[in-house]
Amino acid sequence: MGFKPSLGRIPIQPPYAGRVAGPMTRTVADAALAMSVLSRPDWRDTMSLPPQDIPWLQLDGLDPRALRIGLWLDPGWGTPLSSSVRQVVLDAAARLQSAGATVVELPAFMTRAMVDGLDNFWRMRSWLDFAALPPERQALVLPYISQWIRRGERLSAAEVFTGFSQIGVLRDSAVAACQGLDFVLAPVSPEVAFAAEWASPLNDPERPFEHIAYTLPWNMSEQPAISVNADYSESGLPVGVQFIGHRHDDLGVLRMAALWEQIRPAQRPWPLDL
Predict the structure, then answer these.
(1) DSSP character for 24?
(2) C-alpha angle 154-157-161 in degrees, rounded to nearest 5
(3) Cα-based torsion angle of the residue sequence 2, 47, 39, 258 in order, rounded to the nearest 10 degrees
(4) CA separation (Å) from 201 to 75, 189, 211, 216?
């Protein structure tokens, strides 16, 4: 499982919008233990949150009957959700309902304009880094990446500023969508896996972000999110589900994940006994 806390919960240098550090562990309890150390303050992160005495190890006590959970299957753009992943997420929603939770549909709240704007901004930002490299180092950059960023050289100042402003637009839209909900349940990725030789699921530098539709908004909105395995695909690969909480409710997201560990399907032993 992987936990992305609220922006600034774990000090990081250099800080930047959307850049968040978080633990990857085998269990939610291990993630909570890691957070008890990683969340300690460090003055060098000028965007870090004020220190808080959070009881990270108190993961029980969440009553599913008191929870209102948004089921988010349509991000409004990106790669269509595969049948394998969809079924795993729907099964997770059914298990939460059986435990007493109220599960309601969360409609799409993103637009293509938001994503295309961010794409322009990130291309320009990466192009500046690339252009500063000497030719011999530029030649070492993956062709997929160099092709993606080269359009940044031709972007106007207005296009770049408009693209940057989409961070705020997307953040506002994501936070507004979560009002009236305790948590959001969603896929992590629209596909189970893609070819190891490819740079991205579509392997197309002109469509580089289609696979991150389910995670992008929570990075921009600064909300905590956690990916926890749920079940397995027809081919035997693990398929995770994602729980998202309100900004700064990092402990609540961990508690939601701990609850899910109790009601999810039986998991295969790890490491595998081959």
Answers:
(1) B
(2) 120
(3) -40
(4) 17, 10, 7, 16
Q: Give the pairing type, strands 225-232 and 2-4.
A: antiparallel
CA–CA dist 258, 140 (Å, integer): 43
Helices vs. strands in the chain: H and E counts, helices first? 8, 6
In angstroms, the CA 219 to CA 98 distance is 30
- Express each pLDDT in 25-69 by its tens digit: 999 999 999 999 999 999 999 999 999 999 999 999 899 999 999
Main-chain dihedrals φ then ψ at residue 242, nearest 5 degrees: -120, 135
Scored b (16 or more CB within 10 A) or e, 124-147 reads: bbbbeebeeeeeeeeeeeeeeebe
Question: How far is 187 from 89, CA to CA, in rounded Å?
Answer: 6
Are 188 and 227 in contact by the 8 Å Cβ rule? The answer is yes
> 57: closest CA among 27, 78, 86, 22?
27
> In whole angstroms, what is the distance from residue 117 CA to residue 160 CA?
8
